[in-house]
Amino acid sequence: MLPSFFSVLAYSAPSANEDYDPEFGEDDKDMQNDNNDDYGDEDEGEDSPDLPEPTINTVGQDFIARENETVYLPCDASNADTLVTFWSKNGDYIFQDDIRFNNFGKNYQLFPNRTLVIKNVEANYTGDYTCSVVSSETSQISITHRLFVQSSPSIISLEAANNKTVYEHGERLVLVCKASGYPKPTIIWSFKGQGIVGEGDSITIDNISHTDAGSYQCLADNKIGIPAHKAIRISVV
Predict the structure, then answer these.
(1) How many domains are there within the chain?
(2) Strands 166-167 and 139-160
(3) Ig-like domain spans which residues (predicted)?
(4) Would strands 139-160 and 62-66 be described as parallel, antiparallel, or unpaired?
(5) In the list 89, 106, 156, 168, which could disulfide-bond 178, CB 3.0-4.6 Å?
């Protein structure tokens, strides 16, 4: 017989699905269950944190460069490290991230910070360059830079409005001179190499006479490089 001062602690054996700790009492279990319930309520009511919206910190601006220079077009963005970046010129894609499209050559490069680098620019590089950061199929942000490449003037064409060079006395003569270059060239006209007889893209002579027969020259100048000129000879019969 056990001494009277010994007592026996009776307990139920834990089930196969229940962890048992002999020092873990029923009151402690109840407290743990209450805490678990509280945590569950918090999880159910708590929304997942919203991801910060991407932003482009760069402001679109105009860039002016001379031929053969290198141009840097910035596109600094925040919260966009995992998003896709596109660069395009006048709507034609240049880059998707660091992948260059085939219709653009090695003169176009992309820095890791999204800066578009254009080397050895030429007159035909003038245009609108857009940087777009795409967060979904229907959501994107973008900025557009305008690039102007300074180029010396060139005469595209010089001709009479009706494409003839021989006129009868009293007819109307209209000469048109078209030139390219940036800045836009100023066009001046001379007759027989002497004096200025007009300015602008065209000149008009009403009631042409024999004294108006001779060589007309248009000269295009934009202070970049050497002025361009071309002549046309008009006959009057």
Answers:
(1) 2
(2) unpaired
(3) 54-142, 153-235
(4) parallel
(5) 156
Domain boundary among 91, 124, 150: 150
Co-location of 176 and 213 in the same domain: yes
Q: What contacts 169, CB < 8 A, 6 or more positions away? A: 208, 209, 210, 236, 237
pLDDT tens per residue across span 15-62: 444 444 444 445 544 544 554 554 444 455 455 567 789 999 999 999
User: Does residue 65 lie in a domain region?
Assistant: yes
Range of the domain at 229: 161-236
Separation in Å, CA 153 to CA 127, 200, 205? 18, 14, 26
Within a domain: 4:
no
Q: Are 113 and 76 in contact (CB under 8 A)?
A: yes
Q: Are 149 and 65 in contact (CB under 8 A)?
A: yes
Residues 139 and 67 in one domain: yes
pTM of the model: 0.67
Report yes or no: 101 and 107 within 8 Å, Cβ to Cβ: no
79 and 98 assigned to the same domain = yes
Q: For residue 132, how many other CB atoms are within 10 A of its CB?
A: 19
Using CA atoms, how far apart are residues 171 and 236, in angstroms rounded to an integer?
9
Tokens at residue 85, please? 């970046």
- Residues whose CB is less than 8 angstroms from the CB of residue 89 and which lie 6 or more positions away in sequence, other chains included: 104, 127, 128, 129, 130
Q: Are residues 60 and 130 in the same domain?
A: yes
For residue 104, give the nearest of 129, 80, 74 by alpha carbon.
129
Burial readout 164-199 (b: 16 or more C-beta within 10 A, e: otherwise): eeebeeeeebebbbebbbbeebebbbbbeeeeeebe
